[in-house]
Amino acid sequence: MPIKKEAIIIIASALSLYILILVFFLLTPFLDGFDFIIRFGAIFGFTSMFITTMMTPFAVQLYKIFGKPFIKVHHLFSIAGLVLITLHPVAFAIMRLDIAVFLPDFTSWYGFWSLGGRLALILIYIAVLGALLRKKIQKNWRIIHVLNYVALFLAYVHGVLIGTDFQNLGILIIFTIMIILSFSVLIYKRYLNFKRKKKG
What we know:
This protein has 200 residues and is mainly alpha-helical.
């Protein structure tokens, strides 16, 4: 079956986003191998999660464009995001020899937000578990899936406050646009669902 033009545009857009971020990512020098892995996991894990959240609300439309391969593409980005976003704290924990880096910080307002990536990781795993159990929990899994957006926001704030790469204006602008798009799409889809239920 020939690949549709829309599918090519979507794939090219995702690859272009990765390449653009990679260019800015490589502009900031690395302290050592751990620094590279920690930052790579954070930046590209976030990007993969962003693409996943953008795809989910348009699952029906994307299925029509890609057909069955859409599920594989969606799972590919989901798995890549989960692995990379997990790699970030794992590498940091090994470097610091401290498993406390996985625990959310509630000692202060600034501590909570600056280390919000810790809570974000927990929320992502809960959302993934909800997706895996969606057949058993049925409609409730969509509520759990919203945790991905909360996690993205926490990760974004975490990056802005203490992230090395967010000191790069290009990275800051791109990721700010991504977080705005994520929530704009979420609100838009919820609005459409509300209108549909109101008519029904």
